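Researcher: If only I could read C-alpha coordinates as easily as an amino acid sequence. Walk me, if you will, through where the backbone shape changes along the chain. I have put the entry right below:
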Amino acid sequence: MHRPSFDTLDLNILRLLSGNARKPYLEIARECGVSGAAIHQRIQRMYASGVITGAESLINPEAIGYETCAYVGIFLNDPAQFKSVVETLKQIPEIIECHFTTGQYDIFIKLFARNNDHLLDILQNQIQALGVARTETLISFKQVFKRPMPIVDNSK
Protein backbone atom coordinates (compact mmCIF):
# COMPACT_ATOMS: atom_id res chain seq x y z
CA MET A 1 0.00 0.00 0.00
CA HIS A 2 1.31 3.43 -0.95
CA ARG A 3 1.87 5.52 2.17
CA PRO A 4 0.71 9.07 1.60
CA SER A 5 2.69 11.92 3.11
CA PHE A 6 1.02 14.16 5.65
CA ASP A 7 1.56 17.78 6.46
CA THR A 8 0.86 19.38 9.84
CA LEU A 9 -2.75 20.16 8.90
CA ASP A 10 -3.44 16.54 7.90
CA LEU A 11 -1.99 15.30 11.18
CA ASN A 12 -4.04 17.80 13.19
CA ILE A 13 -7.21 16.71 11.38
CA LEU A 14 -6.45 13.05 12.09
CA ARG A 15 -5.78 13.79 15.79
CA LEU A 16 -9.07 15.67 16.13
CA LEU A 17 -11.08 13.00 14.31
CA SER A 18 -9.49 10.13 16.25
CA GLY A 19 -10.62 11.81 19.47
CA ASN A 20 -14.16 12.38 18.18
CA ALA A 21 -15.22 11.00 14.80
CA ARG A 22 -18.42 13.07 14.95
CA LYS A 23 -16.63 16.40 15.37
CA PRO A 24 -18.14 18.87 12.88
CA TYR A 25 -15.89 19.95 10.02
CA LEU A 26 -16.41 23.62 10.91
CA GLU A 27 -15.22 23.01 14.47
CA ILE A 28 -12.13 21.25 13.11
CA ALA A 29 -11.59 24.17 10.74
CA ARG A 30 -11.77 26.68 13.61
CA GLU A 31 -9.29 24.68 15.70
CA CYS A 32 -6.92 24.35 12.73
CA GLY A 33 -7.29 27.94 11.57
CA VAL A 34 -8.46 27.12 8.03
CA SER A 35 -11.74 27.13 6.10
CA GLY A 36 -14.40 24.46 6.38
CA ALA A 37 -13.96 23.76 2.66
CA ALA A 38 -10.25 23.03 3.19
CA ILE A 39 -11.09 20.56 5.96
CA HIS A 40 -13.78 18.90 3.87
CA GLN A 41 -11.39 18.55 0.94
CA ARG A 42 -8.60 17.11 3.10
CA ILE A 43 -10.91 14.60 4.81
CA GLN A 44 -12.39 13.47 1.49
CA ARG A 45 -8.86 12.96 0.14
CA MET A 46 -8.00 10.84 3.21
CA TYR A 47 -11.12 8.71 2.69
CA ALA A 48 -10.31 8.28 -1.02
CA SER A 49 -6.72 7.23 -0.29
CA GLY A 50 -7.77 4.75 2.42
CA VAL A 51 -6.15 6.64 5.31
CA ILE A 52 -9.58 7.05 6.92
CA THR A 53 -11.64 3.91 6.46
CA GLY A 54 -14.79 4.95 8.32
CA ALA A 55 -16.18 6.25 11.57
CA GLU A 56 -17.96 4.31 14.26
CA SER A 57 -20.08 4.78 17.33
CA LEU A 58 -18.61 3.01 20.32
CA ILE A 59 -21.22 1.06 22.27
CA ASN A 60 -20.69 -0.15 25.83
CA PRO A 61 -21.22 -3.94 25.52
CA GLU A 62 -22.43 -4.27 29.12
CA ALA A 63 -25.12 -1.65 28.52
CA ILE A 64 -26.69 -3.94 25.91
CA GLY A 65 -26.31 -7.18 27.86
CA TYR A 66 -22.87 -8.49 26.85
CA GLU A 67 -20.95 -8.96 30.09
CA THR A 68 -18.19 -11.36 28.97
CA CYS A 69 -15.34 -10.33 26.70
CA ALA A 70 -13.14 -13.17 25.50
CA TYR A 71 -10.16 -13.67 23.23
CA VAL A 72 -9.95 -17.04 21.53
CA GLY A 73 -6.93 -18.58 19.84
CA ILE A 74 -7.96 -21.10 17.20
CA PHE A 75 -5.78 -23.96 16.03
CA LEU A 76 -6.76 -25.37 12.64
CA ASN A 77 -6.50 -29.04 11.70
CA ASP A 78 -5.37 -27.99 8.24
CA PRO A 79 -4.16 -24.53 7.13
CA ALA A 80 -6.24 -24.98 3.96
CA GLN A 81 -9.32 -24.54 6.20
CA PHE A 82 -8.43 -20.89 6.86
CA LYS A 83 -10.73 -19.23 4.31
CA SER A 84 -13.75 -21.43 5.04
CA VAL A 85 -13.35 -21.07 8.81
CA VAL A 86 -13.04 -17.29 8.54
CA GLU A 87 -16.15 -17.12 6.34
CA THR A 88 -18.09 -19.10 8.95
CA LEU A 89 -16.71 -16.97 11.81
CA LYS A 90 -18.03 -13.88 9.99
CA GLN A 91 -21.52 -15.32 10.44
CA ILE A 92 -21.24 -15.35 14.26
CA PRO A 93 -22.35 -11.85 15.32
CA GLU A 94 -20.70 -12.00 18.74
CA ILE A 95 -17.26 -12.15 17.09
CA ILE A 96 -16.16 -8.56 16.60
CA GLU A 97 -12.53 -9.05 15.51
CA CYS A 98 -10.68 -11.79 13.66
CA HIS A 99 -6.94 -11.80 13.04
CA PHE A 100 -4.54 -13.97 11.03
CA THR A 101 -1.50 -14.02 13.30
CA THR A 102 2.01 -15.28 13.77
CA GLY A 103 2.78 -17.44 16.77
CA GLN A 104 0.94 -20.43 18.08
CA TYR A 105 -2.59 -19.63 16.87
CA ASP A 106 -3.76 -19.82 13.27
CA ILE A 107 -6.62 -17.40 13.98
CA PHE A 108 -7.17 -15.08 16.94
CA ILE A 109 -10.62 -13.61 17.63
CA LYS A 110 -12.29 -11.23 20.07
CA LEU A 111 -15.90 -11.78 21.00
CA PHE A 112 -18.55 -10.62 23.44
CA ALA A 113 -21.05 -12.96 25.07
CA ARG A 114 -23.98 -12.28 27.38
CA ASN A 115 -22.34 -14.37 30.12
CA ASN A 116 -20.07 -17.38 30.59
CA ASP A 117 -22.82 -19.85 29.63
CA HIS A 118 -23.37 -17.99 26.36
CA LEU A 119 -19.59 -18.00 25.77
CA LEU A 120 -19.48 -21.75 26.33
CA ASP A 121 -22.33 -22.22 23.86
CA ILE A 122 -20.53 -20.15 21.21
CA LEU A 123 -17.30 -22.08 21.75
CA GLN A 124 -18.83 -25.56 21.75
CA ASN A 125 -21.66 -25.24 19.27
CA GLN A 126 -20.33 -22.73 16.78
CA ILE A 127 -16.54 -22.47 16.84
CA GLN A 128 -15.50 -26.00 17.78
CA ALA A 129 -18.25 -27.34 15.53
CA LEU A 130 -16.19 -26.01 12.59
CA GLY A 131 -13.88 -28.96 13.03
CA VAL A 132 -10.95 -26.93 14.35
CA ALA A 133 -8.20 -28.81 16.17
CA ARG A 134 -8.73 -26.88 19.41
CA THR A 135 -9.19 -23.46 20.95
CA GLU A 136 -7.67 -21.55 23.86
CA THR A 137 -9.82 -18.91 25.53
CA LEU A 138 -8.83 -15.92 27.64
CA ILE A 139 -11.58 -14.02 29.44
CA SER A 140 -11.02 -10.32 30.02
CA PHE A 141 -12.10 -9.20 33.47
CA LYS A 142 -12.02 -5.53 32.56
CA GLN A 143 -10.71 -3.31 29.77
CA VAL A 144 -8.24 -1.07 31.54
CA PHE A 145 -7.87 1.41 28.69
CA LYS A 146 -8.42 1.82 24.99
CA ARG A 147 -7.11 4.63 22.89
CA PRO A 148 -7.03 5.69 19.25
CA MET A 149 -4.01 5.21 17.02
CA PRO A 150 -1.23 7.67 17.84
CA ILE A 151 -0.96 10.38 15.21
CA VAL A 152 2.69 11.43 15.05
CA ASP A 153 4.80 13.16 12.46
CA ASN A 154 7.12 10.42 11.19
CA SER A 155 8.75 12.66 8.58
CA LYS A 156 11.26 14.07 11.06
